[in-house]
Amino acid sequence: MTQYKYSNANRQELLKWNGWGYKDSKFYIDDDNIFFTGSRYPIGNDIELPNFRDYILERFEISILDKPKLPTTFPEPILNETFYNAIKDMKMDYSVDGEDRFIRCHGQTLQDIYYVRTNKFKRIPDLILWPKCHDDVVKIVKLADENNVMLIPFGGGTSVSGSITCPQDEERSIVVIDTSQMNRLLWLDKENLLACFESGIVGQDLERILQDECLTMGHEPDSIEFSTLGGWIATRASGMKKNRA
């Protein structure tokens, strides 16, 4: 079973920074025709899409030749020194790297993607943390409360509600809690059909674990490849087989 353990380096190696999906599954242009490449989906394997180019030009009036580039300069981090030093003392994984912060400053709304592609964000996270367990999160929240630091939980980054987009006028230090390392099954009670997973597990990984036990979630949001259990709960997520809380 594949589990995606995003670190401060390999999230952007696996996923697109400027939109939805995997980096190895994409549209490309050859001889003025559009193709889709990648082996993850039936549409892949360099299938030509002869009518797609004209559709894009007519409906969106955008050039298919324009390729957004990842920024090379980023806003300087605003760090709460007391909080920051305490995190370092705790030996927790963290990053103040501009690229790590930039790709976790937004969700997937149209405005988010426009801002990402045009580099219009005035505020991005100042510090990224990777807790590994519940107790790590408790320590972070307590420390943030004591030092007036803003926390934003970040799972798969698929939000279309604006809930993970940084407030653009926020003056406090903004710290993202990336839950991707909290992705384990803690216990399973097959008799009562109950299970306890950590909040950062990606939906498709959760489903694979259950299928290995001849079980299923019965919950299938469109974002199941990338979104996490914690995000579903926080947003009362729906899907093709919607659960009712």
Topology:
Layout: H1 11-14, E1 26-30, E2 33-37, E3 47-48, H2 52-60, H3 81-89, E4 93-95, H4 98-102, H5 110-118, E5 127-130, H6 134-147, E6 150-154, E7 174-178, E8 185-189, E9 194-197, H7 203-212, H8 229-235
Parallel strand pairs: 5-7, 6-7
Antiparallel strand pairs: 1-2, 2-3, 4-5, 8-9
Helix pairs in contact: 3-6
Function: Catalyzes the exchange of an acyl for a long-chain alkyl group and the formation of the ether bond in the biosynthesis of ether phospholipids.
Pathway: Glycerolipid metabolism; ether lipid biosynthesis
Subunit structure: Homodimer.
Strand order of the largest sheet: 4-5-7-6
Radius of gyration: 20 Å
Distance between the termini: 29 Å
Order of helices and strands: HEEEHHEHHEHEEEEHH
Low-pLDDT residue intervals, each spanning 5 or more residues: 1-9
Q: In what range is the share of β-strand residues? A: 15-25%
What is the share of helical residues?
25-40%
Structural class: alpha/beta
Mean pLDDT: 88
Characterize the largest beta sheet: strand count, sense, and whether it forms a barrel.
Answer: 4 strands, mixed
Bulk shape: flat
Number of strands: 9
Number of helices: 8
Describe, in plain words, how this protein is organized in 3D.
The protein is of the alpha/beta class and 245 residues long. The chain contains eight helices and nine strands. A four-stranded mixed β-sheet has the order 4-5-7-6, covered by helices on one side. Strands 1-2-3 form a three-stranded antiparallel β-sheet, with no helix packed on it. Helix 3 runs antiparallel to helix 6. The longest helix is centred in the middle third of the chain and has 14 residues, at 134-147. The radius of gyration is 20 Å and the shape is flat. The model is unreliable at 1-9 (pLDDT under 50). Keywords: FAD, Flavoprotein, Lipid biosynthesis, Lipid metabolism, Peroxisome, Transferase. Belongs to the FAD-binding oxidoreductase/transferase type 4 family.
